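The following record pairs a protein chain with its ligand, glutathione.
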Amino acid sequence: MILYNIALSGNCHKVRLMLSFLGIEFEIHDLDLGTSEQSSDAYLKLNPFGQAPVLDDNGTVIRDSQAILVYLATKFGDKKWWPESSDELAEIISWLSTAANEIQNGPARLRVHYKFGRPIDFKQATDISNKVLRIIDTHLSQRIWLVGNKPTIADIAIYPYLALAHEGHLDISSYEHIQTWKTRFESLPNYLAMPGFSE
Ligand SMILES: N[C@@H](CCC(=O)N[C@@H](CS)C(=O)NCC(=O)O)C(=O)O
């Protein structure tokens, strides 16, 4: 199994976390951003969007961190990270969607601006961030994991860009339920940190 990876990417870290939780050995292919490998013809055959992560499982090629989480959970997770009931599955998908939309366009975008100097619509990214943080904090005030009573890929999809929020100059310390959930997540067996997680 090969993970096409960018070391500082929170999206790639979702996959690294999942592989670590599942104890799956894999090969890492770090994309050479200096030569824009992500835009090379060879890489665009794997992911026409020119983004990481991509997982190649013996010829089965999957792009998008959310899709890769679903693939790994259903193929190797033994129902642990992907429950059976329709209502919980629907809830998980709603959080994967939040990860790909509000988290990406809020905290992740602010981080890209402050860490990598990319121009953004600052007000829009800040408003989206504040709204999604409020919603997640309120949601977690009633429960210990985002869906059901055990960790799922919903938690994995949401976690990295909240742990990296400070790199986008977002202070999330006052969101007490997010803080408790973060600490709980970090104590899971085989949890894996990435550069930037510790302030
Ligand atoms: N929806 C995609 C987004 C992936 C994405 O934005 N990847 C970024 C790194 S976090 C990337 O590859 N950027 C390189 C580029 O756009 O040139 C996912 O969740 O995997």
